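Batch queue: ligand-bound targets. Current item pairs a single chain with pyridoxal-5'-phosphate. No template structures supplied; prediction is de novo from sequence plus SMILES. Inputs echoed for audit trail.
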Amino acid sequence: MTTDADIAALDAADPLAGFRDAFDLPDGVIYLCGNSLGPPPRDVGERLTRVTADQWGAHLIRGWTEDDWIGLPRRVGDKIARLTGAAPGEVAIADSTSVNLFKLLAAASDLRPGRSTILSQADNFPTDLYIAQGLVGLSGDRLRLRTVPAGEIAAAIDEDTAVVMLSHVDYRTGALLDMAALSEAAHGAGALALWDIAHSAGALPVELNAAAADFAVGCGYKYLNGGPGAPAFLFVAKRHQEAARSPLSGWMGHAAPFDFAPDYRPAEGIGRFLCGTPVILAIAALEAGVDVALTADAQALRHKSQALGELFIARVEALCNDSGLALASPRSALLRGSQVCLTHPAGYPVMQVLIGRGVIGDFRAPDIMRFGFAPLYLRYTDIAEAARILAEVLATRAWDRPEYHRRAVVT
Ligand SMILES: *Cc1c(COP(=O)(O)O)cnc(C)c1O
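Prediction returned. Tokens below.
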């Protein structure tokens, strides 16, 4: 087993070690939940103060022009494009992931009018399935949702498939899908590929254009550290931008919103996928997180995230023998996103005790404990310590008390 000295050496040699200082993390906490809500970048307060005082306060309504607030969704979108292998003009910040999915799923299925199937993985994040169900309901009999296990997606694509809608990384198990291969399979059958990269953007290299994705949505508050409820982003490949239409034809997606014309006319380019007025303060906060991620090398991030996961699994296997734990994530780091999931029959109370001891992961029903490994701010020593505390909680059955079994509303 790696010794404590080996682990300290890994931290000392970590090329990303300096990024920890870019975040405000409370003392005494090992934060393994950055896949649900990233921590605040250290300069986010100062940036918000500046936008509030120097722009909003000083310029009032003129900020839309003088500070180019109107261009902010596209400016920050271009930064996310750099992080996700997209081109300038292919990404915009807007709405939530769920709303963006609705817009793009509707647009994509309209591009395949002769086909009726939206194909997705059965274990997709529920909101993705709910959104598809809502769209199907609105479509009359035109669309249907078909779900199959992730491993059967390629075989299930057929001549009736309009859109293959997939999450790049499974939110529960961390299983990573092959974006290029599945997009190619979709295209081979004449279908379009829509990817949800909520659990991959900012944690691992995403190559939307190299993988020939047609559409994508992603989340601002997870690995991009944009803050609670941060606005989300959407990607529409250039080749679809002229034909694709947003079903939420709001004025901010109009070609000339300030003409106040009575009829909708879509803007050129990605701008047509905006709907209402952009949330300037929230986008400014998101930009702080995106700017940190932009200065990190994507391959170094991937390498470290895999190494953190490997270390955690090795430590848990060595320390938690016969404890009832099972690995719910793929064993190979190549097939995982940036998280490791363990099942345990008492997963919920075990996680409550861990959180009480400063190891913050989360729980997903029915029995999954999730541990996210955000490579920007975690240290190898944190991971070894988290595994040690987990082993202690299991060995002492510290979780076996009624107060740890009471479920909170948000798990
Ligand atoms: C986190 C996440 C979402 C979140 O959607 P919101 O509308 O931003 O709440 C959606 N899809 C996936 C796959 C996610 O991981």
